[in-house]
Amino acid sequence: MACKSRSGLGIFRVVVKEGGICSFSYSTDGRKFKESGMRFNARRGKWIGAKMGMFILNKTPGSERSWVDLDWFRVEK
Question: What is the tens place of the pLDDT at every residue in 12-64?
């Protein structure tokens, strides 16, 4: 999932609904979120107990390494 913004702001979120239905989305302005990827069902042995993290992949072969600068994570119930 890519998040480009003139402000440099990128907000990523996962919403978990009744029955463990998870959906991912992102926002570049903090107000409008665009869904990214497919929804899936978190279930025992599949996703429950997983740890959160962010990583970056450099898609250009032979180029310099990429990086990501994160300020914080917030987890809400």
Answer: 888 888 888 989 898 888 889 999 888 988 887 777 666 667 777 777 777 77
Q: Is residue 75 part of a domain?
A: no
The C-alpha atoms of residue 66 and residue 4 are separated, in whole angstroms, by: 15
Asked if residue 29 is part of any domain, the answer here is: yes
- Residue 71 identity (one-letter amino acid): D
Q: Is 46 in contact with 55 (CB distance < 8 Å)? A: no
How far CA 40 is from CA of 3, 5, 8, 20, 63, in Å, comes to 21, 27, 29, 8, 34
By residue count, the chain amounts to 77
pTM for the structure as a whole:
0.62
Identify the burial level of 10 via C-beta atoms within 10 angstroms of its C-beta, where 0-12 means exposed, 13-18 middle and 19 or more buried: middle
